[in-house]
Every structure is written in structure tokens, then in C-alpha cells.
């Protein structure tokens, strides 16, 4: 989430009188530089405990905390909602997730234009926050199973996401700058500290919500399953609180009137230059030095010079979307990867969508580590770590993160059960008889396939068998004591089967079950029951899941269960209550539980694994999260600080819009790959890693040839440069000559 910090840094830099001394444009005095935005109207401001801090910023900080809690909390469970509630495929879930993320970074343009051109920041925040709240309400209703069918849920979900994207994106460029408006011009230090607190509020909201909302989803059961309505409803409630708190401070705020949008002016200038150039390409009008000079007929030369400086920085933005294509997959592909891992790390059991908490947590740790430790240490070693180099290293770190993710994915595949392929089946045998059973399996030509002796209440694990056709007959010959029984079964390719043997006074018998689960049960466990009692059994798995398992070897369907220990599962048969000890139902596993009546131990269970539990710990995602977060720190913060220092003060809002658009384009890249790529997941990770590595090389070449912007690139030396600037420039030239 460090892009948020970078955006707030931009908001600080939107006040030209407080430009960093390191900026080249600091040579220009505030009075003689570019036209300044008018100051907010003077009014008596209430302070915090007699300090220089206006009381109004408390409302803004609380508003930002609640809004970020709302956004990141909703987004944390979004992919699993698509996958398990709407029952979309992994590719579709990923695509819609990134389409939503992309829209969230396009809509800031709408918010900026509304605030600067018509409504002002305060009213823009209020109106779009209402849209934001409406989005959460509609999204929560779309997660209530009893409200309509699948189509209704899909429509409500998409409408809700659209309103949320419009709300969160629309207020994004307004809130931080509105906070800066509350300070008087001379309170530079206080404003700087406000933005530090503002950034902490952003990360605190994201950190807490990413941890809490997955617990609301999985820890609370409603409507017979995960409570997505609550997981979306609580973030919606926080957005209501954010709106109310912000509105309560209305009378305390200093409100700037709309002043016209520089983004629109720049866009019109560029568009006019292109059209004018195309219009006069065959005329006898002399060619001009720069293509933007074709806008001179309509726009002032000063604006054209500023846009020239801007386009030089924007050119460096061309490779940047590839970084965001990798960065934003933490909430989609990496979350899906976590569903196939074991969330038990000893001291805590992570839900798959909860592991995303590592990013904001590591951001808070890495920022001081880099600023106070790594960067100074590198400088002491005599290494000139320029902004371009930092950004390139950030890309390489993100590339390494996806290489690590690919390695983890390969290990997951190695430990996952093999799915039966063409002309393949898997057969498992369970012996529920009270003595040994010998099994001989023969094909349709009576050729022996294998023979096995199975002890009582033991099983033979799944064994792969090859078929000669898509379906084939087999003969199962059972030997028990002095009896022998033969049965014929037709087995179909790409399936798993379980053969259950049992005995009674009439001898040995068996039945064949086709297993409805052939692969890992993502993030959960699955359990089915076989009832060996002579009476029906009612089983209460939780308050929303009830099973009736028929008498005399009745079999239930698989039921998905949250991972956990189930030592006292309530059951009832013929008016008598008892409990079953199922033990641990672990991540990704599928179990068959046999209810048996032992003369010396009473009712008990025998549990076998049909699908083994996830073996790779979710802790193995820590390296990839650490690498991508380190890359984010070096890329995102450095990128904005560099590009803003290279642009005229009046163009910083344009750069903010352009930066957000690179994030949007990165999400579109993921959307395209998810819909068109036929690669397995680990290969897709390798593809993204390789692409970003190539892009980092291209970006390094572009940065090598990049010439930093100088004041004379913005101001013409004849009459545009203020007199004191000319003097400073001459002094610099004299000093340079002496050196």
C-alpha cells in the first residue's frame, strides 16, 4: 500500500510555496513562479490543545482510517467471494478482481475534475462518499443468498463494485489535499507531520481490515456458509462512519473554491498540438522544433514549455504498468495460491485471504528500515543509488517475488494428488469387516490386475489403474473366511472410486462409490459419512449443516467444513443423543468417516483420508511478500518523488493522474493474461517474472539517457526567467567554470 503514501506525498507537493529544497524549481520564488492557487478564505481556526494543528484534521484522519478500512476490508475477501459464492472460475475471478482494481484507478480523474472545476474538494468528497456508501450497501445485499438467484447476486455485485470504484477513486485525489488546505501557509512542519499521521491512518486501516474481515467471513456462519454479507457489511458500516465523521467537521474546515483543472488544460493543449500538426503537415508552414510548438496558435508559450517538461517525465512512465501488473496480484493469484496451502503456522491459523496482511505490515517495517538503514549504508559504501536505479531495483525485486511464487506453486503441485487423466482411474479399498478380506481384481478377460489382503478396518490407498477404453468392466473377487463373492463393476476414466467391503451373518458383500471430489478442497476440508448402524443417524456439523445418514451402510455426500478440530459433533439416533470425535479436519483434505458400534467402546468413528491435507505451509509465502513489498518501497515512493521533482509545480496533479493510470493499466494487463493465457499457474508466474525483468532492463536504458529537467527547460531565457533567477543561474555558471 505504499502507493498511497506516495499519493499523499504528492498532495504535500501540491503547495508550491513549500517545495523541497532539492527541487530544481526551488530557484523560482513563489511570487514570481507559476500562477499559484488562491488560498482558502481566512477564518478563525480551532486548534488542538493550544497547538498549531487545526482541530479539523482530526475529522479528516479518522475519515481516512475508516475509508481505507472499508476499501481494503472489502477487497481482501473479494476474490474468494467470486470463487466460492458466485462460483466463478479462478481465471474469471482474477479478471473481474483486476477489472475492478483498474476502474478504481481510472475514476480519480473524474474526482479531480469535479473538485477542481465545479464542486470544490469538500462537496466532491461528500457527494462521492454517498455513492461509496450506496456501493457497499448494494454489494452486501448481493452477498445475501436468500435475495434472488445467481443472476441477481451477480448483478447486485457488479453494481456495488461500480459504485465503490467511483466513490473510492473519486475521493482519492481530494482527501489528502483537503487536509493540507487546513493549514496556514507558514505551518510547513505541522503540515508535514499531518501527512505522516495521515499515511499511518491509511496503513492502520488497511492492516486491521485485512486481518479482521477474513475472520468475519470464515469465523461467522450465516445462511449455511461463509458470511460474506457480514464481511462486506462491516466495511460498509465503516464507510458510513467515515462520511458522518467528515461531515461533522464541516463548520471547522477551510474550503478552497474550485479553480479550474490543470489536467483538462494539459489534455486540451496536447490534443490541439496533435490536430494542428496533422492539419498542416502538407502546408508550406515552416516545421517547428518540437511537436508541442504546434499549440502556440492557441496556448501561451509558458504552458507549452511546462507541458514539454511534463511529457519528458511521462515518457518514463511507459514501462511502469508492468510493475503494477505484478504488485496487484497479491489480492488475486496469490490469495488463490494460499487456498492450496496450510494456514497453520503454529501460533496462529491464517485464512487464505488473511495472509494479505503481510503487505501493510511489512510496509510499516520497511519504510524506516530503508530510509534510516539501507539507503545511508549504500551511500557510505560510495554507491550512487539514483532514483532511476532504485526504481529499476524495485522492478527486479518484484520479478524475484514472482519467481519465488512460481517455486512455491511447483512445490504445491508436487504434493497435490494427481488427477486421473485420460483412460486412468484411481481405486481405494476400505475393509469394514471384522476380519481380513482378500481381494482379487480381474479385467473383462479374467486377466488378474492385482490381489491384496486387507486387515479389518484398514484401507488400501488409491492405486492408479489404466483402462483400454473410456469405460471398462472389472471383476472384484472377495475372499472372506470360507466364502467367496464376485461382483462386476464398470469403471469410467478420469474418476476416483472407493470399494467398501463389509460382512454380516449372510457373508461378505461390497459396494462401489464414485468419489465426487477428485482434487484439493481449497482453503477448507470436506467430510462424508458411512453409517454401519442399523438405524438412521442425524449429524449436526454446525448450526447450518445437518446430515441424515441412512441405516445399514448409508453414505452421505461430502460436506465442506472450516478447518478445525471437531471433538464433540452432536448426533442423534432413535431418540438417543451421542457425540462423535472427528479430530482435526485440515486444510484441503477430504475424509471418509465410518460410524461403527464397538461392543467394548460403544459408538466410535474410523476416519480415512480420501484427499491428503495441504502440506505446504502458508509461511512459504513470506519470502515473496517480503520481496514484492521491498520492491514496492523502492519503486513506488521513489518513482513519485523523482517524477514530481522533475515537473513544474503546477503539473503535479497531472502527474498524480498519470501515476494512477499506470496502476490501472497494470491491472488491465493481468486481466488480459488471465483471459487469454492457457498456461498453468506456475508458468504464468514465470511469465510475469520474465516480462518484468525485461521491462526493468528497458527502463534502465531509458533512465540512462534521461536528461534531468532544468529551470531553463521551463522558462525562456529572454524574458520569462525572473531577474533573480537569471542572477542565480549566472552565479551557478561562474562557480561551474571555476570548478
Automatic annotation (TrEMBL):
<feature type="transmembrane region" description="Helical">
    <location>
        <begin position="357"/>
        <end position="378"/>
    </location>
</feature>
<comment type="function">
    <text>Proton-coupled amino-acid transporter that transports oligopeptides of 2 to 4 amino acids with a preference for dipeptides. Transports neutral and anionic dipeptides with a proton to peptide stoichiometry of 2:1 or 3:1. In kidney, involved in the absorption of circulating di- and tripeptides from the glomerular filtrate. Can also transport beta-lactam antibiotics, such as the aminocephalosporin cefadroxil, and other antiviral and anticancer drugs. Transports the dipeptide-like aminopeptidase inhibitor bestatin. Also able to transport carnosine.</text>
</comment>
<dbReference type="InterPro" id="IPR036259">
    <property type="entry name" value="MFS_trans_sf"/>
</dbReference>
<dbReference type="GO" id="GO:0140367">
    <property type="term" value="P:antibacterial innate immune response"/>
</dbReference>
<feature type="transmembrane region" description="Helical">
    <location>
        <begin position="654"/>
        <end position="673"/>
    </location>
</feature>
<feature type="transmembrane region" description="Helical">
    <location>
        <begin position="309"/>
        <end position="327"/>
    </location>
</feature>
<comment type="similarity">
    <text>Belongs to the major facilitator superfamily. Proton-dependent oligopeptide transporter (POT/PTR) (TC 2.A.17) family.</text>
</comment>
<feature type="transmembrane region" description="Helical">
    <location>
        <begin position="154"/>
        <end position="175"/>
    </location>
</feature>
<feature type="transmembrane region" description="Helical">
    <location>
        <begin position="196"/>
        <end position="216"/>
    </location>
</feature>
<dbReference type="InterPro" id="IPR004768">
    <property type="entry name" value="Oligopep_transport"/>
</dbReference>
<keyword id="KW-0597">Phosphoprotein</keyword>
<dbReference type="GO" id="GO:0015031">
    <property type="term" value="P:protein transport"/>
</dbReference>
<keyword id="KW-0812">Transmembrane</keyword>
<dbReference type="GO" id="GO:0015333">
    <property type="term" value="F:peptide:proton symporter activity"/>
</dbReference>
<keyword id="KW-0653">Protein transport</keyword>
<keyword id="KW-0813">Transport</keyword>
<dbReference type="GO" id="GO:0140206">
    <property type="term" value="P:dipeptide import across plasma membrane"/>
</dbReference>
<protein>
    <recommendedName>
        <fullName>Solute carrier family 15 member 2</fullName>
    </recommendedName>
</protein>
<keyword id="KW-0968">Cytoplasmic vesicle</keyword>
<feature type="transmembrane region" description="Helical">
    <location>
        <begin position="228"/>
        <end position="248"/>
    </location>
</feature>
<keyword id="KW-0325">Glycoprotein</keyword>
<feature type="transmembrane region" description="Helical">
    <location>
        <begin position="685"/>
        <end position="707"/>
    </location>
</feature>
<dbReference type="GO" id="GO:0071916">
    <property type="term" value="F:dipeptide transmembrane transporter activity"/>
</dbReference>
<dbReference type="Pfam" id="PF00854">
    <property type="entry name" value="PTR2"/>
</dbReference>
<keyword id="KW-0399">Innate immunity</keyword>
<keyword id="KW-1133">Transmembrane helix</keyword>
<feature type="transmembrane region" description="Helical">
    <location>
        <begin position="390"/>
        <end position="408"/>
    </location>
</feature>
<keyword id="KW-0769">Symport</keyword>
<dbReference type="InterPro" id="IPR000109">
    <property type="entry name" value="POT_fam"/>
</dbReference>
<keyword id="KW-1003">Cell membrane</keyword>
<keyword id="KW-0391">Immunity</keyword>
<dbReference type="GO" id="GO:0030670">
    <property type="term" value="C:phagocytic vesicle membrane"/>
</dbReference>
<keyword id="KW-0472">Membrane</keyword>
<feature type="transmembrane region" description="Helical">
    <location>
        <begin position="95"/>
        <end position="113"/>
    </location>
</feature>
<feature type="transmembrane region" description="Helical">
    <location>
        <begin position="125"/>
        <end position="148"/>
    </location>
</feature>
<feature type="transmembrane region" description="Helical">
    <location>
        <begin position="69"/>
        <end position="89"/>
    </location>
</feature>
<dbReference type="InterPro" id="IPR018456">
    <property type="entry name" value="PTR2_symporter_CS"/>
</dbReference>
<dbReference type="GO" id="GO:0016324">
    <property type="term" value="C:apical plasma membrane"/>
</dbReference>
<keyword id="KW-0571">Peptide transport</keyword>
<comment type="subunit">
    <text>Interacts (via extracellular domain region) with trypsin.</text>
</comment>
Amino acid at each position: 500500500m505504499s502507493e498511497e503514501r506516495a499519493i499523499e506525498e504528492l498532495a504535500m507537493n501540491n503547495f508550491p510555496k513549500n517545495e523541497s529544497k532539492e527541487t530544481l524549481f526551488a530557484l523560482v520564488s513563489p511570487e514570481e513562479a507559476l500562477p499559484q492557487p488562491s488560498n482558502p478564505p481566512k477564518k478563525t481556526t480551532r486548534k488542538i490543545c493550544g497547538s498549531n494543528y487545526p482541530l479539523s484534521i482530526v475529522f479528516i484522519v479518522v475519515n481516512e482510517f475508516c475509508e481505507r478500512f472499508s476499501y481494503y476490508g472489502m477487497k481482501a475477501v473479494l476474490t474468494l467471494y467470486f470463487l466460492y459464492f458466485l462460483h466463478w472460475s479462478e481465471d474469471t475471478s482474477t479478471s473481474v478482481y483486476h477489472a475492478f482494481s483498474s476502474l478504481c484507478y481510472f475514476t480519480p480523474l473524474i474526482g479531480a475534475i469535479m473538485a477542481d472545476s465545479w464542486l470544490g474538494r469538500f462537496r466532491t468528497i461528500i457527494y462521492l462518499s454517498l455513492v461509496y456508501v450506496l456501493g457497499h450497501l448494494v454489494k452486501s445485499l448481493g452477498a445475501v443468498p436468500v435475495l434472488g438467484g445467481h443472476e441477481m447476486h451477480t448483478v447486485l455485485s457488479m453494481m456495488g463494485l461500480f459504485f465503490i470504484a467511483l466513490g473510492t477513486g473519486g475521493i482519492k485525489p481530494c482527501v489528502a489535499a483537503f487536509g493540507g488546505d487546513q493549514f496556514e501557509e507558514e505551518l510547513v512542519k505541522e503540515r508535514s507531520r499531518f501527512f505522516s499521521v495521515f499515511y499511518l491512518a491509511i496503513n492502520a486501516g488497511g492492516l486491521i481490515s485485512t486481518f479482521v474481515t477474513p475472520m468475519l467471513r470464515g469465523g461467522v456462519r450465516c445462511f449455511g456458509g461463509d458470511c460474506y454479507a457480514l464481511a462486506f457489511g462491516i466495511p460498509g458500516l465503516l464507510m458510513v462512519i467515515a462520511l458522518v465523521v467528515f461531515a461533522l467537521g464541516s463548520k471547522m474546515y477551510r474550503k478552497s473554491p474550485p479553480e479550474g483543472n490543470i489536467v483538462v488544460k494539459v489534455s486540451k493543449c496536447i490534443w490541439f498540438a496533435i490536430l494542428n500538426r496533422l492539419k498542416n503537415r502538407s502546408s508550406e508552414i515552416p516545421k517547428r522544433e518540437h511537436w508541442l510548438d504546434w499549440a502556440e496558435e492557441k496556448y501561451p508559450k509558458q504552458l507549452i514549455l511546462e507541458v514539454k517538461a511534463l511529457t519528458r517525465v511521462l515518457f518514463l512512465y511507459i514501462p511502469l504498468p508492468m510493475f503494477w501488473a505484478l504488485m496487484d496480484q497479491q489480492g488475486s493469484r496469490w490469495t488463490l495460491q494460499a487456498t492450496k496451502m496450510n494456514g497453520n503456522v503454529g501460533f496462529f491459523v491464517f485464512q487464505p485471504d488473511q495472509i494479505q496482511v503481510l503487505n501493510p505490515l511489512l510496509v510499516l517495517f520497511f519504510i524506516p528500515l530503508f530510509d534510516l538503514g539501507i539507503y545511508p549504508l549504500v551511500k557510505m559504501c560510495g554507491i550512487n543509488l539514483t532514483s532511476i536505479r532504485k526504481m529499476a531495483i524495485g522492478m527486479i525485486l518484484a520479478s524475484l517475488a514472482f519467481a519465488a511464487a512460481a517455486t512455491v506453486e511447483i512445490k504445491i503441485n508436487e504434493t497435490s494428488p494427481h488427477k486421473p487423466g485420460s483412460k486412468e482411474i484411481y481405486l481405494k479399498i476400505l475393509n469394514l469387516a471384522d476380519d481380513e478380506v482378500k481381494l482379487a481384481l480381474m479385467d473383462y478377460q479374467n486377466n488378474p490386475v492385482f490381489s491384496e489382503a486387507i486387515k479389518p478396518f484398514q484401507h488400501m490407498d488409491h492405486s492408479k489403474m489404466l483402462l483400454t477404453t473410456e469405460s471398462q468392466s472389472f471383476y472384484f473377487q472377495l475372499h472372506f473366511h470360507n466364502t467367496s463373492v464376485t461382483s462386476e463393476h464398470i469403471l469410467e476414466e478420469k474418476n476416483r472410486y472407493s470399494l467398501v467391503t463389509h460382512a454380516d451373518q449372510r457373508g461378505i458383500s461390497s459396494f462401489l462409490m464414485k468419489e465426487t471430489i477428485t482434487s484439493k478442497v481449497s482453503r477448507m476440508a470436506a467430510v462424508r459419512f458411512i453409517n454401519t448402524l442399523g438405524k438412521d443417524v442425524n449429524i449436526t456439523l454446525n448450526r447450518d449443516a445437518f446430515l441424515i445418514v441412512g441405516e445399514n451402510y448409508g453414505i452421505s455426500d461430502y460436506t465442506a467444513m472450516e478447518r478445525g478440530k471437531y471433538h464433540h459433533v452432536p448426533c442423534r439416533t432413535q431418540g438417543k443423543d451421542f457425540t462423535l470425535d472427528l479430530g482435526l479436519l485440515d486444510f484441503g483434505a477430504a475424509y471418509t468417516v465410518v460410524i461403527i458400534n464397538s461392543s467394548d467402546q460403544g459408538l466410535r468413528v474410523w476416519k480415512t483420508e480420501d484427499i491428503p491435507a495441504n502440506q505446504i505451509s502458508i509461511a512459504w509465502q513470506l519470502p515473496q511478500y517480503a520481496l514484492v513489498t521491498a520492491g514496492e518501497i523502492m519503486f513506488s515512493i521513489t518513482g513519485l518523488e523523482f517524477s514530481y521533482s522533475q515537473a513544474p509545480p503546477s503539473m503535479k496533479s497531472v502527474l498524480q493522474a498519470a501515476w494512477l493510470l499506470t496502476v490501472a493499466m497494470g491491472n488491465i494487463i493481468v486481466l488480459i493474461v488471465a483471459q487469454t493465457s492457457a498456461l498453468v499457474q506456475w508458468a504464468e508466474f514465470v511469465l510475469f517474472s520474465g516480462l518484468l525483468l525485461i521491462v526493468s532492463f528497458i527502463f534502465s536504458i531509458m533512465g540512462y539517457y534521461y536528461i534531468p529537467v532544468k529551470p531553463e527547460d521551463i522558462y525562456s531565457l529572454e524574458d520569462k526567467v525572473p531577474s533573480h533567477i537569471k542572477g542565480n543561474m549566472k552565479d551557478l555558471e561562474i562557480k561551474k567554470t571555476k570548478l
